[in-house]
Amino acid sequence: MAVRPHRVAVLVLPGAKPLDVGIPAQVFANRPSMPYEVRVCGPSVGTVRGGDGLAYAVGRGLEAVDWAQTVFVPGYRFPADTPPPPEVVAALRDAHERGKRVAAISTGAFALAAAGLLDGRRATTHWHYTRVLQDRYPDVEVDEDVLFVDEGSVLTSAGAASGIDLCLHIVRRDHGVGLANHVARRLVSAPHRSGGQAQYIERTVPDPTDDTFATTREWALRHLGDALTLDALAAHANVSTRTFSRRFVESTGYTPMQWVLRARVDLARELLERSDLAVDQVAARVGLGTDANLRLHFRRILGISPTAYRRVFQQ
C-alpha cells in the first residue's frame, strides 16, 4: 500500500534567510523516494522581502499552515527587533494546539517563542542569538551548546547547516535510518550529527586535528564490524589517546566509544529496516557481537527491542 505523503509547510517570514528557506524546501520535496510533500507559504500570498537582498514570491498564505502536518519556520534577520505578525503567531499556536509538529531553523525559534510554544521547553537558536532569546523569553530553557533540540512536537536548530541535521533527524524519526542516509547521500551531507554536538567552539587558533578527526570518523564508519578501540582510533588520527578523546568530545559531544556505539546502533537500525538478516547476524555485522548485546544497547538507546523495531518498519 502506498504511503500517503507527510505534508510540510515552510513559512517564510519577512527577512527570511535563503539557506534556511531552501533546506527544508529541498529536503522534503516530493520525489519517488521521499514520502513528503512540501509547500512554501508566507503570511499572505505575494512577495515576502527576505534577507540578503532577496525576495520570495509565495503563492500560498497561512492556509498552507492549516494544510500541513509539520510546519517549518526558517530563520530571519533581526529577530529581536521584528516580531512575527499577529496572524502568524495565531497560526502557529493553532497548529500546535491541533497536534501539528512545529520546527524552527536558526532564528525561526523567535517566532515559536513569540507564540509561546517554547515556554518550559529546551530550545536552541544560532549561537549569536542564544543570549538574546533567553533574555527576551525567560521561560524558555535555551541551550546554546547543541545543534538541535527535539522536544517531541516542537523542534529547534542552530544555524543553517544544523538545519540539515534537524531535517535528517526528522526523516530518521519518521522513516528510519535507511531513508535518512539516502537523503544525506543526495545532499552530500554527513549522515548523522547528533543534536548534542557543539554548534560553536571558539578557538584562537584553528585546531589542525579537526580534518583528521573527520577522516577518522569516516574510517570508523567503514569498519564498525571490526574491533574499534580508543587506541585504534587515536592511532588512525595520529595523535595520543588523551588528545583524541579530549578533542573528540569537544567536537561531537560524545566520547569516542560512545560515538562508536551509537554509530553501530544506527547501522543496526538500517540493517533491520532494509535487510532480512537475523538479529544475531546484524549484531555480528555491526560489531556488537551477540544478539543479547544488541538488544541491551537497543533498549538503552532507543527504548525498544531490535525485533519490535523491525516489525514497526515492516508495517
Report a brief summary of the structure:
The chain has helices at 18-27, 63-67, 86-97, 109-114, 130-136, 160-175, 177-187, 210-222, 230-237, 241-252, 256-274, 279-285, 291-302, 306-314, and strands spanning 6-11, 36-41, 46-49, 55-58, 70-73, 101-104, 122-123, 141-142, 148-150, 154-157. It has 315 residues and is α/β, with parallel strands linked by helices.
Q: Can you describe this structure?
A:
- The chain is of the alpha/beta class.
- The protein folds into 2 domains: 6-187, Rossmann fold (3-Layer(aba) Sandwich), CATH 3.40.50; 205-315, Arc Repressor Mutant, subunit A (Orthogonal Bundle), CATH 1.10.10.
- 47% of the residues lie in helices and 12% in strands.
- It has 14 helices and 10 strands.
- The protein has helices at residues 18-27, 63-67, 86-97, 109-114, 130-136, 160-175, 177-187, 210-222, 230-237, 241-252, 256-274, 279-285, 291-302, 306-314; strands at residues 6-11, 36-41, 46-49, 55-58, 70-73, 101-104, 122-123, 141-142, 148-150, 154-157.
- The protein has a 6-stranded mixed sheet with strand order 2-1-5-6-10-9, sandwiched between helices. Strands 3-4 form a two-stranded antiparallel sheet.
- Helix 1 links the parallel strand 1 (6-11) and strand 2 (36-41).
- Helix 11 (256-274) packs across helix 14 (306-314).
- The chain is globular.
- It starts with 5 loop residues before the first strand and ends with a helix.
List keywords for this structure.
Rossmann fold; 10 strands; 315 residues; globular; Arc Repressor Mutant, subunit A; alpha/beta
